[in-house]
Specification:
This protein is α+β, with helices and mostly antiparallel strands and about 200 residues long. About 30% of the residues lie in helices and about 25% in strands. The protein has one domain: Roll (C8orf32 fold). The chain is globular and about 40 Å long.
């Protein structure tokens, strides 16, 4: 997956927006649940990650329902999205590991899925249930495979994205959604952005 690079001006602009939104305790936007379809294959990079980091891929256990998105939780989402986007230098897996796909926690540099994994870990450390923090893949505007973290809440589903410092409702992003983790079984993935009755599978790289 190819990391998206922004100009310094654009990154400063999105950073300012994210901080402004984070400061508005009463300004939690509304989203909607992302439609989920048939079971599909998990990304091969994720399977490799789980082979190395088995504890990070345990089933999520019983899911009671969407997380209540309070003002404090909304601030946490924005703070973690911005801080991890700032802390990690975007680099491709090919440059870092000489592999087309290698999912891992980032160490100063990483690809899009590494940002998503770091954000999931940071949010669980702040008490978020892991079943509400779902790794998700999509095709970006250039048709390149991209990975983000989708957070399911009672206000709908929101995206934490290394290409965007603004925590955003899933339907407002210019992506073609491909697959998303199951809320209970970490190794089970579903087609994303499709009606629940959709059949077929999507083979992910």
């Amino acid at each position: 997956m190819v990391p998206l690079r922004y100009t310094a001006l654009a990154r400063l602009a999105t950073l300012a927006l994210a901080f402004a939104l984070s400061a508005c305790a009463g300004s939690i936007p509304k989203s909607s649940p992302m439609p989920i379809g048939a079971l599909t294959m998990a990304p091969r990079g994720f399977i490799g990650f789980c082979e190395r980091e088995a504890a990070s891929c345990d089933d999520h256990g019983e899911v009671s329902g969407p997380v209540k998105l309070t003002a404090e939780r909304w601030r946490q989402l924005n703070d973690i999205n911005v801080s991890i986007n700032r802390a990690i230098q975007p680099e491709t897996d090919q440059d870092l590991y000489h592999q087309a796909e290698y999912w891992t926690y980032a160490d100063k540099a990483g690809d899009c899925e590494d940002y998503a994994l770091d954000k999931r870990r940071a949010l669980t450390e702040q008490g978020w249930p892991v079943g509400s923090l779902l790794l998700t893949t999509a095709r970006n505007e250039k048709g390149e495979m991209h990975a983000v973290l989708v957070v399911t809440t009672d206000h709908g589903d929101f995206v934490l994205d290394n290409a965007n410092d603004f925590v955003t409702p899933w339907s407002e992003l210019p992506y073609r959604w491909v697959a998303r983790q199951d809320r209970v079984a970490a190794l089970a993935w579903h087609r994303a952005g499709t009606a629940p009755g959709t059949t077929g599978t999507a083979s992910l790289q």
